[in-house]
Amino acid sequence: MEAAYLTVAAEGSDEFTEQRSRFIGFAKPVKTEEEALAFVAALKKQYWDAKHHVYAYVLRDSRISRSTDDGEPQGTAGVPVLDVLQKQGITDCVVVVIRYFGGILLGAGSLVRAYSKGASIAVRAAGVLERRSCSVGSVRCEYGEYGRVQPLVAEFGGVIDDSEFAEDVTLRFHLPCEREEAFQAQLTEITAGQRFFDKEGEEFFDFAKKG
């Protein structure tokens, strides 16, 4: 399993005007090609009167990346949008840039810059999120050990998901896979070898927004 990847945090949009043409950029997290195309279709329906609905998407699991110029000169629209995602390493994301033609023709260079900008501001509006592969599990300890074990989780980049206070304390949490071994070594040291991380599996979790 890869250690981490970047995607967008939520649906977002922004717009600008270039030589009287209105460009509206949208970005949304998606997992499948069907989700990506459904988002494109919804925007085409909502903005039916726009001249162009350019889009691109990158999907992590299926390793699919696609783009379309939607009537713009070949290579001046879809490819620049896709390039924004690929250069930033963003996946599981669809970006749509809608253009309302303002009556002034734009040259190839201007179109590339405009569609790149439309994609960039859409991604910025959506927010870029890092998802990291994490070990998920728990540690059971005595109340007297809780004050040492609980801060240890955060020290190794972990996040506590649940705390159960019964006869003993059970902390359920996730932490980056690459920190698991070091965490266990430190846990063994501070508890004199009495406590261990009971790993249940691995999952991806949202960790930090970039930028």
Could you characterize the architecture of this molecule?
By secondary structure, this protein is of the alpha+beta class. It folds into two domains: 4-126, Ribosomal Protein S5, domain 2 (2-Layer Sandwich), CATH 3.30.230; 130-210, Alpha-Beta Plaits, CATH 3.30.70.240. The chain is built from five helices and ten strands. The chain has helices spanning 33-46, 78-88, 108-126, 143-155, 180-190, and strands at residues 4-8, 12-18, 21-29, 52-59, 64-68, 93-100, 128-141, 159-165, 169-176, 198-210. The strands form two sheets. Strands 1, 7, 8, 9 and 10 form a five-stranded antiparallel beta sheet that branches. The protein has a five-stranded antiparallel beta sheet with strand order 2-3-6-4-5, sandwiched between helices. The longest helix has 19 residues, at 108-126. The chain is elongated and about 75 Å long. The two termini are 25 Å apart.
